[in-house]
């Protein structure tokens, strides 16, 4: 193992998403990871395209948007240092549901999904460990979407 | 002391001499209600009432008993906590407005014919309006000056359960005078007990005689008869905890299918104290008034907060009412909010029975899962 | 129990439907001394009365500041009075935020929408006694950038070195450069010691429930989480019965409660 990938393994292991992951599984994850950098304004994900990556944001700010004809780009959430960007890679048909773009210079760890999926198929225990870590993220996103949908601060009825 | 039936006229005179407005039971619109009385002739002599769930009838008695019935649709809260009352009036001024509080009634009330359950109900409303951080000046004014002539029940009604609630049928506290009516061997008299100095002073003016053993025993027997006639009963042991752990009991759905949310139970209840206020203005906008009216937790808008009512279902409103009476009241005011008078049962148009509902939940105790 | 006339000195528009009124007593000798989190009943002559939290600095109770959202005839009328108009005021009522008990702890002030109004008094208090608290985070979520209350003031707070101020909106257009997302996301980012933190949360009931869940996940004790409840109120002194919430009267036992005290009731629908 190169010193560089050892560093990466350490960094990944420290992230809450992978906390407590079996060391051999952590190696598998790190083997699919690389450092990436996005300039301010750069598109990261595009709705409808194949979802073949997810990101752990190490620095910067990312917006997740939906494009609506007539309304233009509507931001549904912003993501920051420590946040996970992208879960569509783990759910068929592996296509992005949203756009994402860097709002400022953003550094992230990118994980290649086909690499992770292949390793999951080879080692279902590894796949299960990944699913267990992403399911709460998906549930959390759903919960937040509900809360936004409820428009809890919405304009009150006029009596 | 023993006072003969005619002594009631002297009681009226003595109360009038003291400038009291006498309020007591009288027959009106087919029921025994409370109203201002002129003399003992206004009392429902020779009448009784027949009560059951959703059922109330006046009947002629075969004797001349003056208090030979139980409680009707009215209670004393009509006078202490009136159903409709102007709280204040305000006039516009250069510097805004000026508020003038309304005067208290000029003459204090004497309540004649207050039953033991009703004394307890008054004591309960005292805790609501007088014993907290805030005091209701309107209630205090009316309450503090009221002279109370209690009557011990010599019979119980079909919906009575004061024995269960430990609130009767014999008056034990909170009266100036307490009467027990006896009709026996062709005699008609009242055994009278005083509960205060001013009661004792007034009693001395009634021309009575010292009660004999026989007379005292007769009075005791009369009250004992009432104890044996209770139409309903309610198990109170652990009742608060029972209801607290059964907020989600299916019985609430069942009772809601029958409940019309008509608010009758809350109007006739002697302890229900909820009210609303209405602000009104004169047509020229120069004056404004605030009126207070009885309100009921059975109405939809009672729980209105911007955009909707918190208690949308009848189920939640019945649950609120009954749980308040029998459970949360303990935490709020240190006692039950129910005195077992049975009015809510009698005056419910579909005969929903608080004792039956509580018993049903007790029989099928289903703690909500935590 | 009767309202005192107060003169409207100033009406500040906060958002499209929310206004802050500056009120001075019309007559000498009237002063309403309150604690952060308490409320007054505001009366519009001849129309009606509404409970509104005080949103000023409790250390200087004159003038009174009330932030009012137009929701009905009374609030609309009050907001339309303008300078020189008269509002009736009686109070203060209710329980305050536990600012003294929170001394020595980290503090999370979490506001949703107009919920920032009653918490602004807390912010004033803790800025005046900053040394008595550990880390302080003010987390504010609202619907959109246009719905932010006290915007320039929040920006000032944000400029202080001794406060962590984070703002997020549920929806935003392109001209918003701040966070987008629900207010609970701010809790995850905030710096505090869950074993020694007091949280004060005010906003719509759903928002408070979600925040409490997040705080609990982060390890904050339910007894250290305080929320401000809202129910129909007519009298504000426990007589009218409208604001009952199980055994609690929101007007006198609340509006501020420790979450622990009312957690079970919040789980029951339509209490």
Show the helix and strand layout.
The complex is a heterotrimer of chains A (159), B (370) and C (271).
Chain A: H1 3-14, H2 23-30, E1 33-38, E2 43-45, E3 53-59, E4 61-68, E5 72-80, E6 84-85, E7 99-102, E8 106-112, H3 113-122, H4 124-150
Antiparallel strand pairs in A: 1-8, 2-7, 3-6, 3-8, 4-5, 4-7
Chain B: E1 2-4, H1 7-17, E2 21-28, E3 31-36, E4 47-52, E5 55-60, H2 77-80, E6 84-93, E7 96-101, E8 109-114, H3 116-129, H4 137-145, E9 147-152, H5 162-165, E10 177-184, E11 187-194, H6 197-203, H7 213-228, H8 239-244, H9 251-258, H10 264-268, E12 275-281, E13 287-294, E14 304-305, E15 308-309, H11 314-333, H12 343-346, H13 354-363
Helix pairs in contact in B: 9-11
Chain C: E1 4-15, E2 18-25, E3 39-44, E4 48-53, E5 64-69, H1 73-80, E6 86-93, E7 106-112, H2 116-128, E8 136-142, H3 151-158, E9 164-169, E10 179-180, H4 184-189, E11 197-202, H5 205-217, E12 225-228, E13 244-245, E14 248-249, E15 256-258, H6 259-266
Parallel strand pairs in C: 7-8, 7-11, 8-9, 9-10, 11-12
Antiparallel strand pairs in C: 1-2, 1-6, 2-5, 3-4, 3-6, 12-15, 13-14
Can you describe what's shown?
The complex is a heterotrimer of chains A (159), B (370) and C (271). Chain A is an alpha+beta fold and 159 residues long. Chain A contains 4 helices and 8 strands; from the N terminus they run ααββββββββαα. In chain A, the strands form 2 sheets. In chain A, strands 1-8-3-6 form a 4-stranded antiparallel sheet. In chain A, α1 (3-14) packs across α2 (23-30) and α3 (113-122) crosses α4. Chain A is globular and about 50 Å long. In chain A, 28% of the residues are buried. The model of chain A has no long low-confidence stretch (mean pLDDT 90). By secondary structure, chain B is α+β, with helices and mostly antiparallel strands. Chain B has 2 domains: 2-85 and 105-228, no CATH class; 239-276 and 293-363, no CATH class. Helices cover 32% and strands 25% of the residues of chain B. Chain B contains 13 helices and 15 strands. In chain B, strands 1-11-10-9-8-2-3 form a 7-stranded mixed sheet, with helices on both faces. A 4-stranded antiparallel sheet of chain B has the order 7-6-13-12, with no helix packed on it. The termini of chain B are far apart. Chain C has 271 residues and is of the alpha/beta class. Chain C folds into 2 domains: 4-93, Translation factors (Elongation Factor Tu (Ef-tu), domain 3, Beta Barrel), CATH 2.40.30; 106-228, Rossmann fold, CATH 3.40.50. Chain C is built from 6 helices and 15 strands. Chain C has helices at residues 73-80, 116-128, 151-158, 184-189, 205-217, 259-266, and strands spanning 4-15, 18-25, 39-44, 48-53, 64-69, 86-93, 106-112, 136-142, 164-169, 179-180, 197-202, 225-228, 244-245, 248-249, 256-258. Chain C has a 7-stranded mixed sheet with strand order 10-9-8-7-11-12-15, with helices on both faces. Chain C has a 6-stranded antiparallel sheet with strand order 4-3-6-1-2-5. In chain C, α5 links the parallel β11 (197-202) and β12. The longest helix of chain C is centred in the middle third of the chain and has 13 residues, at 116-128. Chain C starts with a strand and ends in a 5-residue tail after the last helix. Chains B and C meet through β6, β7, β12, β14 and α11 of B and β1 of C.
């Amino acid at each position: 193992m190169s010193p560089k990938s050892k560093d990466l393994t350490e960094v990944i292991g420290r992230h809450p998403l992978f906390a407590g992951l079996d060391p051999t599984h952590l190696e598998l994850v790190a083997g699919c990871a690389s450092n990436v950098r996005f300039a301010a304004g750069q598109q990261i994900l595009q709705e409808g395209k194949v979802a073949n990556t997810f990101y752990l944001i190490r620095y910067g700010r990312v917006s997740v948007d939906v494009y609506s004809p007539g309304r233009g780009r509507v931001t549904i959430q912003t993501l920051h240092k420590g946040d996970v960007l992208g879960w569509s890679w783990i759910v068929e048909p592996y296509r992005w549901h949203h756009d994402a773009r860097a709002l400022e210079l953003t550094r992230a760890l990118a994980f290649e999904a086909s690499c992770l999926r292949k390793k999951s198929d080879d080692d279902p225990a590894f796949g299960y460990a990944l699913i267990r870590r992403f399911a709460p993220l998906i549930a959390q996103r759903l919960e937040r979407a509900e809360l936004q949908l409820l428009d809890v601060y919405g304009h009150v009825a006029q009596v | 002391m023993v006072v003969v039936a005619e002594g009631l006229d002297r009681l009226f005179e003595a109360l009038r001499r003291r400038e009291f407005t006498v309020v007591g039971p009288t027959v009106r619109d087919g029921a025994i209600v409370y109203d201002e009385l002129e003399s003992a002739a206004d009392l429902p002599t020779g009448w009784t009432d027949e009560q059951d769930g959703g059922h109330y009838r006046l009947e002629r008695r075969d004797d001349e008993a003056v208090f030979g019935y139980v409680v009707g649709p009215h209670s004393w809260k009509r006078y202490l906590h009136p159903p409709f009352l102007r709280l204040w009036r305000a006039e516009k001024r250069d510097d805004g407005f000026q508020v003038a509080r309304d005067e208290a009634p000029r003459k204090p009330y004497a309540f004649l014919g207050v039953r033991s359950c009703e004394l307890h109900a008054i004591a309960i409303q005292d805790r609501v309006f007088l014993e907290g951080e805030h005091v209701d000046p309107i209630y205090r004014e009316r309450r503090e000056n009221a002279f109370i002539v209690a009557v011990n029940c010599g019979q119980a009604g079909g919906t009575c359960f004061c024995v269960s609630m430990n609130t009767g049928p014999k008056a034990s506290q909170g009266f100036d005078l307490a009467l027990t009516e006896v009709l026996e061997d062709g005699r008609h008299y009242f055994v009278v007990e005083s509960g205060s100095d001013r009661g004792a002073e007034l009693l001395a003016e009634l021309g009575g005689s010292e009660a004999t053993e026989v007379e005292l025993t007769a009075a005791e027997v009369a009250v004992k008869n009432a104890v044996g006639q209770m139409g309903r009963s309610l198990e109170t042991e652990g009742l608060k905890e029972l209801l607290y752990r059964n907020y989600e009991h299916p019985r609430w759905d069942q009772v809601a299918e029958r409940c019309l949310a008509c608010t009758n139970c809350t109007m006739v209840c002697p302890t229900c104290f909820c009210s609303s206020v209405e602000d009104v203005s004169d047509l020229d906008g120069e004056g404004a008034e605030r009126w207070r009216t009885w309100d009921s937790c059975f109405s939809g808008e009672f729980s209105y907060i911007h955009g909707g009512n918190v208690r949308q279902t009848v189920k939640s409103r019945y649950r609120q009412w009954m749980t308040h009476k029998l459970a949360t009241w303990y935490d709020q005011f240190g006692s039950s909010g129910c005195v077992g008078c049975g009015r809510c049962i009698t005056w419910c148009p579909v005969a929903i029975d608080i004792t039956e509902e509580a018993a049903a939940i007790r029989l099928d105790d289903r703690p909500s899962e935590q | 129990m009767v309202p005192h006339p107060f003169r409207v000195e100033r009406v500040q528009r906060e958002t499209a439907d929310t206004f802050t009124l500056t009120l001075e007593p019309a007559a000498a000798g009237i002063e309403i001394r309150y604690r952060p989190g308490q409320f007054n009943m505001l009366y519009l002559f001849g129309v009606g009365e509404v409970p509104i939290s005080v949103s000023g600095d409790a250390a200087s109770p004159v003038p009174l500041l009330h932030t009012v959202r137009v929701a009905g005839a009374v609030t609309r009328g009050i907001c339309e009075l303008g300078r020189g108009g008269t509002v009736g005021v009686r109070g203060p009522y209710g329980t305050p935020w536990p600012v003294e008990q929170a001394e020595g702890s980290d503090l999370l002030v979490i506001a949703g929408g107009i919920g920032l109004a009653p918490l602004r008094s807390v912010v004033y208090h803790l800025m005046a006694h900053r040394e008595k608290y550990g880390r302080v985070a003010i987390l504010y979520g609202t619907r959109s950038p246009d719905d932010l209350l006290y915007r320039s003031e929040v920006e000032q707070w944000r400029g202080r070195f001794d406060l962590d101020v984070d703002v997020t909106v549920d929806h935003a257009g392109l001209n918003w450069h701040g966070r987008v997302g629900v207010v609970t996301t701010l809790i995850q980012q905030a710096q505090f010691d869950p074993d020694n933190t007091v949280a004060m949360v005010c906003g719509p009931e759903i928002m408070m429930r979600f925040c409490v869940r997040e705080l609990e996940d982060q390890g904050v004790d339910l007894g250290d989480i305080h929320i401000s409840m809202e129910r129909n109120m007519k009298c504000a002194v426990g007589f009218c019965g409208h604001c009952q919430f199980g055994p609690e009267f929101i007007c006198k036992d609340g509006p501020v409660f420790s979450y622990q005290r009312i957690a079970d009731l919040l789980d029951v629908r339509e209490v």
